[in-house]
Description:
Chain A is mainly alpha-helical.
Amino acid sequence: MRIDSRLHAVVILVTVALTCGSVLLSNLFVDPFGMYRLLETDGSHGAKPAAYRRVKLAKAYDLRRIEPQAIVLGTSRSHVALRMTHSGWKVPLARRYNAAFDGATTKEMHAYLLHAHAVHPLRQVVLGLDFWQLGRGPAWTRKDFNPSILFEPEKPLHNAAVYATDLSLLVSIDTTRASITLLRNGDSGGPQWLAPDGQRLGDVFFRQVEPTYSSSPASYLRNIDRQEIGFMLDTGPAVATAQRKLAPATSQPVLTSFDYIAKIVAFCRDNDIDLRIFITPAHAHQLEIAKQLGGWPAIERGKRDLVDMLYRDAVGHPGSSAFTLYDFEGYSSVTSEPVPPDGSRSEMRYYWDSSHFKETVGDWILDRLFGTEREEDPVPDDFGVSLMPATIEGALEKIRADQSAYQRDQPDEVRFITSLIQQIKLEKLAAR
Amino acid sequence: MLFNSYIFILVFLPTTLFIFHVLRTSGRHRMATAALAFASLVFYGWWSLQALLLLLILMAANYAVVWRLLRSAAGTARLRLALVVTGVAGNLLVLGYFKYSNFFLENWSALSGTKVDFVAVVLPLGLSFFTFQKIALLVDAYEGRVRHFDLLGYILFVTFFPQLIAGPIVHHSEVMPQFALSDSMRKKDFAQGLVLFVIGLSKKVLVADTIAQFVGPAFDAAAVGKLPSSAQAWTAALAYTLQLYFDFSGYSDMAIGLALLFGIRLPANFNSPYKALNIIEFWRQWHMTLSRFLRDYLYVPLGGNRRGEVRRYLNLLVTMVLGGLWHGAAWTFVLWGALHGIFLAINHLWIALRPQIGLIGPSNFFTRFVSRTITFVAVVTAWVFFRAADLNSAVLMLRAMAGVGGHVEATMDAAYGLETITVLLAIVWFAPNSLELTAYAFAKKRAALNRIRFEGPMSPHWAIVCGLLLAFCLMSLTQVSEFLYFQF
């Protein structure tokens, strides 16, 4: 049977519309990535296992739905350890959100800051920086970063395109597959480690999701050391290049990683947002790795640059409070916590591994940043130092002295890292 | 703007079609042509305004030369020769600057041992294609073969968006007469065009992009000096062979389909090339418009087969090496072209030798099977150079394919890869191609497809299948990336 050309086109278009329309509506209601949560009107927060692999996507939509006034920006360290229930936050509990995510780059953090502020004006931001983000290497984003799902203040055309992206995500094959999986398996996708307020729950994640952690936290930590060394050897030790260590860059490098920190600071200043910055407390193992791989001068340079930039900002805005900067990266009773012997099943008190610290430490960081005091759990005196032009050189000098002391007092740990570096170098050489 | 993007499929194409057909059916043909040319400029400028400016400058310069050539038909031979040489050289210089300057500098630096700063240039999309089209027009104007030439038609010939970026490389005599529009177009064309576009889009989005995952691992490993296993190398080489075919022939189908939506018939570009029984046949069926261009504007002017066998083989080699270099500025492309030049020479030599060694007579299933297998393996082997990051990694891949394989970490499901490759090979070897299916071309091969031909594109079943395919393509255009990394 032959049909008229016009009818032929209509049949095609109607088929497309019906197929895409039904897929879109199904995905909207099944909502496998937790983008809309239309059916959770009672405030429940059903598990969406597929979202665990798409945290950036889920967080972009959480920010749209929750419209927070206070957020955390940072990497997995802040994602795991900073509680939004801390008493220092100035906004209601329901309007706080931990927008940190794994491997966040400063360019991505800046985009999420703009997105959150475009959704609802922010009042408070806590920014957690890892030392590799202070570098002068080109800014970049990871391959799963999607700027087309993020709003930007005062960009109506771009923001209209965001809604178009919503539709394309809802009709996508990936979303459809995830919907089918969710319908087939229910929400029994394993332990639920992503909290409604955006925090990654370390208790659940490390103890229930990471099998190697449960069998031996100490071995897990050493494995993280090994990964860190591998990444740094692949990309060079300097902080300036350390940001290349993960996924390849997906965008044209224009500004540096540090430039995006400056943009975050400027944005918060322009929009009267209370910004508090801290440098994350990696365990002494990580500091020793950076030191042995020759990255220490770049770390110090990054800290000096940051202090200088914040000082210039404060001088340029005499009527406003200077933004707070705390450095927790030095050697302290927290960061120098002894590591149990390899194979031990004992957990560390402060760390999940040499990169990720626990909520206890996160609470102390927020205590320092917000100036809160909790009598039942005071911050150790040696944990964290406020960095300002007057204190920076003294602080850096003290860390250098503490580093020498650590190397002297912990020869086994230092030897372990030295031999691990040699071993990985040889492995890489053999692989070539 | 890409054919496989939402902005093109949902906004640009419907808007352009609507405006064009409203103007055309209301009798305003020149306005319809102008609107189509303007839309084509928007299509190109969407990618880069600087590239659009270059396109406009080249278009104006070539128009001036062709116009002068046509006006000086009775003029002196010397002036005409100077005009065509200037025009061709100018086009080649622009192409050379944008495409080959860094390749030249890199090799100069390596040969001379001096450090050379590279030129910061971005190759404008489609420059290689529209340079060839303009050269053909210049040469034909010089030789008095241009009959239809007016400004608006010329602008559309140069910019016509369906074929602007990646061909088919059209000859002015094929399309410029068609730009003199009539009030109505054949209704069948619209349906046929829509079906072809959807088939092409499906080939690109659903097949080529899917099989691409099996290409990367082995080639990427070889690029960093690792030796893949034989199975990995063969999987990658076969997957790339299929990816390239479905990607490029899909693009050509889309281009032909889109042109048909405006009532313009473009030349066929692929005719089941992997069914070819020899390399000569392969090049008559793969990127047919490029082969035609290379034959008419390079091989024949070089002397073709008119100056003896040795010169013929040399001409073939030169043509194919330059054809390889046209595909990309790298030694891998040069070597790919050289390999095909050698294959063609061997093929011609074999044809000449066969009667002398008594190998004459009709072909049978066995001889066809052997011929097709040899041809296919030769093509796959050459594609390794086309895809490899450099000559070293190409050699590593070939070593692995020859059985001297190592092993790299598997990042894909090998069984799924094998199944996919098997199914796709069956399609390219045994199924009719999209132009046969839609009765667009290759009438002689259509005898067995009569029922499909007559009811094909216009049947409701085809319409529903196309609708579903288009829906799946639209659903596949957006990917929701996963990220599994918890350490930083």
